[in-house]
Amino acid sequence: MTEHEILSHFQKVKKNGKGWVALCPAHEDRNPSLSITETDGKWLLHCHAGCEYAAVVDAAGLREAFTVTSKTGPQIVAEYDYVDEAGKQMYQVVRYAPKDFRQRRRVNGEWVWKLENTRRVLYRLPEVLAAVAAGSTVYVVEGEKDVHALEHVGAVATCNAGGAGKWRDEYSATLAGAPVIIIADKDEPGHKHAAAVAASVRSHAASVAVVEAAEGKDAADHLRAGKTLQEFVPVADAAPAPRIRTYSLPELAAMEPEHVDWVWSPYVGAGEVASCEGPPKSGKSTFIRKLCAHVVTGRPFLGEPVKQGPVLYCTEERGGTTREGFERAGALELANLHVLFRHEARGMEWAETVDHIDAHCRRLGAVLVVIDTLSKWAGLRGEEEQAAGFAMEAVGQLQYLAASSGAAVIVVRHERKSGGATGEAGRGSSAFAGDFDTITSIRKVTGEKTQRRLGAEGRHDATPDDVVIDLVDGDYLSLGDPSELRRREQERSIVDALPLSRAEQVRVEDVREQVGGSVAHETIRSLLLRLMDQGVVCRARGEMPEHPRSDGFWLRGDDD
Description:
- This protein is α/β, with parallel strands linked by helices.
- It folds into 4 domains: 104 residues, no CATH class; 110 residues, Dna Topoisomerase Vi A Subunit, Chain: A, domain 2 (3-Layer(aba) Sandwich); 219 residues, Rossmann fold (3-Layer(aba) Sandwich), CATH 3.40.50.300; 71 residues, Winged helix-like DNA-binding domain superfamily/Winged helix DNA-binding domain (Arc Repressor Mutant, subunit A, Orthogonal Bundle), CATH 1.10.10.
- The chain contains 17 helices and 26 strands.
- The protein has a 9-stranded mixed β-sheet with strand order 18-17-19-20-16-21-22-23-24, with helices on both faces. A 5-stranded mixed β-sheet has the order 10-9-11-12-13, with helices on both faces.
- Strand 1 and strand 2 form a beta hairpin.
- The longest helix has 18 residues.
- The chain is elongated and about 120 Å long.
């Protein structure tokens, strides 16, 4: 049928952007609520008051021209654009007849039917933000059809893509400070969804109320029946009694201390998520591969016990590079060390990838999972790595993996170019750091080829702050606390600068000059007194004629 023939079936037709609006023939419509658009030769009819597509087609007398049965496949009946703050399209929810929904986004001008890591936002985001800024009420409903029905009577409304059960906590921050009314669909999934949204929004919104339709199932039915915004019915049990209990402080004091089932002691336990960070080429992957080999064989690592068991190593590298890395780690013969390649999971969303990793963990009985690197595996690109929402979603999936499989999960991350303290230097949003149980850092020791400084921050008191490690005979050894190492180096320098006899005794100033002046005067004096207590150094007062008020020092000999 021609454009003129199709439009002739409707009343009060007016041009509206790329399409038209008209009175909906399926209900008593006084203000045009029907959108009519033509896309690629297909005509789309959408009633903003909530009339079903088939009802509109029948009422308009267009059944022969518009296929609404499933015999020839589902037909697109509505397209809902989800846009960013500036109104730019991010993705689209497509409604079909028979009733079905799918989501898509444009990539290089073509539709792609996977959102992957696309940022998720509330429907009608610019309108919602304007209402929040003005302190106006925002209605939260279950689907886009209800949003448009409410807009038709002058309200501001929103929903999340995917319908019931798909609300994300990050959506709630968008509604901060606004009065929020949640309209529940009158069925069990609708009530559960409304309660979940209310629980999430309550700490952000100025006020929260949950209501339902006085007639029909949803907001569109309510309004189509001639009811007003004021006639929605309050839902009494929208905030069910909590199923979790509180504990008094005496009860808390009586609890047993937490037992940690260490997989890598004392850094990460079973069911926990840890991060290993460092600058590029600092040896992170080499260090982690060595750890994997020790876990598989059950040999202590850095002098501490490990939990023996299978390991799953998820790498962004190709096979040849990974093989060389494990060959250098002396681990190629370990049958219980398994590798998963990122390129084989290309095209999967992060949540789906984690489900596959979880399945492999269960099949292998893995006690340790390594994700090298997190940004590549989670598909975090550009600004996504800097966004708190993406960071929390990425780590949240790993928390699920650790809890579900019982394995320890270690992710490898690069540090930002500017560096920083352990726990603060990781590249990307600061939200990453808040969700890891432990953060370790691997950094080169200046002037040392094989030594590395292993830093750590975390929730376990047993985890040390910093230690220096060294790669000796193909394995890492702990050399101890960096400050203790520095003190021992300074003591060696002082001993080398001291004479062997009383007759040649020297002052603190003389020792400082010998060690190059890099160590403070008081530090040298303190270390000399410490060496005296150990019986290594002797001291005399007033024996140097040219310095009668100075102490003299020399190394203890057989005659002293």
